[in-house]
Amino acid sequence: MNSDFEVIWRKGDTEMPNNVKHIVSVAQDELLLKSLHLPYDAVDIIRYNANKGAKTINEYVSSLVLESLHVAQ
Q1: Which end of the chain is less enclosed by CB atoms within 10 A, N or C?
Q2: In which residue ranges of the chain is pLDDT below 50?
Q3: How far is CA 15 from the centre of its chain?
Q4: Would you state the pLDDT for residue 1?
């Protein structure tokens, strides 16, 4: 196994590079979807609607939750 790797960014360094931010955002989105244990159809709809609205999945799901809280009040 090859243990050579390049460190792109470390916590405490200057601002996170855009390519690293993108990877972190995508990983967070995937973890959120996995943790919700939704059916595949629902996950596909969430991905589609988030992409259509130019939002991350996290932003889209957060907006859905906030909307449902406003309706419940």
Answers
A1: N
A2: none
A3: 19
A4: 55
Spatial distance between the Cα atoms of 55 and 61, rounded to a whole number of angstroms: 10
Q: Which of 38, 62, 43 is nearest to 70 (CA)?
A: 62
Give the Cα separation of 67 and 26 in Å (integer): 23
d(CA 2, CA 59): 37
Alpha helices (runs of H) in 1-73, residue ranges in sequence order: 18-36, 40-52, 57-72
User: What pLDDT does 24 receive?
Assistant: 86
Tokens of 5: 């790797």
- Locate the domains of the chain by residue range: 38-73
Helix (H, G, I), strand (E, B) or coil at 23: helix
